[in-house]
Design a protein that fits this description.
Helix content: 25-40%
Largest sheet: 7 strands, antiparallel
Number of helices: 9
Structural class: alpha+beta
Distance between the termini: 29 Å
Strand order of the largest sheet: 2-1-6-7-5-4-3
CATH class of the largest domain: Mainly Alpha
Oligomer: single chain
Shape: globular
Strand content: 15-25%
């Protein structure tokens, strides 16, 4: 069976990602006295003004053990974004997993009755070893209500694909043909690797795809993910994931100021994914693609891009 393997010529830092970091990345070691306490921040939120004190229960994503934790260890550097389920914060910790002043992404869910933190942990376990996985460290709950976690702590990435595309479009950076082809290959390899592990993401918008601080692509926010859904009885069903990749690659091509020969080749090689959009409609339940057929198409697409990469660069 085909297994996605990341391109062995990956550079540790792409020049585009490196340059964008100056626009979007806060500095490490941000003085704790400058950023507000997480406890104070949450008390100002409508849904979280009910914390009796700063101590909460936390569950390790590694060993599943619960202990108590003082939220005053965290301070809020900035708000990263907000959605229907909650919001994300970039926080700094005095005593972090990665040393003093370590930075993390803290996801805060609006409704503690929702099962998403546990769902994310289950997906995290299913994707153990996945190259595109953003590590989860802990989930948090009130001490007397451990069955209803309301926050998750995970590794902090650098910038989203959305920010990356905006940076290219606004001429903050120049995306060269080599980097563009590498990004396309990495996106396709990551989604294939994820599906081979039996997981479909179902919400791969460009804000849920990120570059980490080493330039590697990562997927985040597995709230809508399903396990074992991509390969049920030999039928491929994760059409949304694949069409999202085609959409993002097309957007990258459209904003990159590169010769047309590169644009045309990338778009032609991924054009077959457009038909997956049709399968997403409610009237298409009787249409299906076999798992083997999809994997064969994906393998040929990735190999064609790699072969052309070697010729061009």
């Amino acid at each position: 069976m085909y297994r996605a393997v990341h391109f062995n010529q990956r550079k540790v830092f792409w020049s585009a990602v490196f340059l964008l970091s100056f626009y979007f990345t806060p500095s490490y070691g941000f003085p704790l006295e400058v950023c507000p306490s997480l406890v104070d921040y949450l008390e100002q939120e409508e849904h979280y003004g009910v914390l009796d004190n700063s101590w909460v229960a936390r569950k390790s994503a590694d060993n599943g053990e619960w202990d108590l934790f003082d939220l005053s260890d965290f301070c809020v550097i900035k708000r990263l974004g907000e959605g229907m389920q909650g919001f994300s914060l970039l926080v700094s910790s005095r005593n972090g997993e990665n040393g003093p002043f370590s930075q993390y992404t803290l996801k805060v869910f609006k409704n503690r009755l929702l099962p998403w933190p546990y769902d994310e942990l289950n997906v995290h376990k299913a994707l153990k070893g996945f190259s595109g996985l953003t590590q989860i460290y802990y989930i948090y709950a009130l001490p007397n209500d451990r069955g209803n976690p309301f926050m998750t702590l995970e590794a902090a990435n650098n910038i989203t694909l959305e920010e990356f595309i905006q940076g290219v479009e606004n001429d903050q950076i120049k995306l060269d043909p080599e980097s563009l082809v590498k990004i396309a290959i990495d996106l396709l390899e990551l989604i294939t690797e994820m599906h081979l592990l039996g997981v479909s993401h179902n919400d791969l918008r460009n804000s849920n795809i990120m570059f980490d601080h080493h330039g590697a692509l990562k997927f985040i926010d597995y709230n809508m993910a399903e396990t074992d859904s991509a390969n049920k009885q030999g039928v491929f069903k994760a059409f949304g994931d694949v069409y999202a990749m085609r959409y993002h690659i097309s957007n990258l091509v459209s904003v990159a100021k590169i010769p047309e020969k590169y644009q045309h080749y990338i778009l032609n090689q991924t054009q077959w994914m457009d038909r997956y959009k049709v399968f997403l409609s409610e009237d298409s339940y009787d249409i299906y693609i076999t798992w083997d057929h999809h994997m064969d198409r994906m393998k040929r697409c990735i190999n064609s891009l790699k072969a052309r990469y070697r010729i061009w660069f």
